[in-house]
Amino acid sequence: MAKQWFVLRVASGQEDRVRRGLEARVKAKGIEERVPRILVPTETVTEIKGGRKRTMKRKIYPGYVIVEMEMDEPTWFLIRETPGVGDFIGAHGKPEPMAQEEVEKLIGQVEKETEKPKIKIGYQKGDAVKIKEGPFENYDGVVDEVDTKKGTVRVIITVFNRPTSVELGYWQVEGI
Q1: Which of 22, 37, 53, 75 could form a disulfide with 68 if both were Cys (CB 3.0 to 4.6 A apart)?
Q2: Helix, strand, or coil here: 35?
Q3: CATH number of the 4-119 domain
Q4: 57 has a pLDDT exceeding 70
Q5: How far apart are the C-alpha atoms of 15 and 7, rounded to whole Å?
Q6: Please, is 93 exposed, middle or buried when counting C-beta atoms within 10 Å of its C-beta (0-12, 13-18, 19+)?
């Protein structure tokens, strides 16, 4: 029987605990070849809070665990009866496997996650900010553009009664 990927509903915030429980039960039953992978897709995010840079892992799909398995009665029952598992995603109580394109996208996200952390910039266009560093320190302005790839924020400030665009690092501004 071919292995397919299925999505499990779990309690939000309990994804890692459920994954560890599933792995332990699969190992205890000796069916690792029928359930080879259990994933909780995460991404690494860098953010600045209170002037401190923090890198943390954030779940891409909170409340869900993704399982690669051979769907048969014993494995279905073992996974379904694991503490913390709500149910499989599917219509009318029947587990529905993920489409191959979705699986490839998901695996690509998980593998890409190990590369470079994403920068989380807590500002959007139109937000009022105060510049806290650099030559325009203590100026107030409005966010015009956010570039998460470069980690910059373009802010419109007023200099000599004229609007001026200034590009700053996201750590150089704070919300008002």
Answers
A1: 37
A2: coil
A3: 3.30.70.940
A4: yes
A5: 12
A6: exposed
Task: Give the tens place of pLDDT for each residue, 4-43.
Answer: 999 999 988 899 999 999 999 999 999 889 999 898 888 8
Q: Are 154 and 145 in contact (CB under 8 A)?
A: yes
Q: What is the reported pTM?
A: 0.63
DSSP state of 170: G
Q: Which CATH architecture has domain 128-175?
A: Roll (2.30)
**b/e code 117-133 from CB counts within 10 Å (16+ = b):** ebbbbebeeebebebee
Q: What DSSP element (H or E) covers 68?
A: strand 64-69
CA 8/CA 31 separation, integer angstroms: 18
Provide the pLDDT for residue 22: 92
Question: Where do the structural domains in the chain lie, given as residue ranges?
Answer: 4-119, 128-175
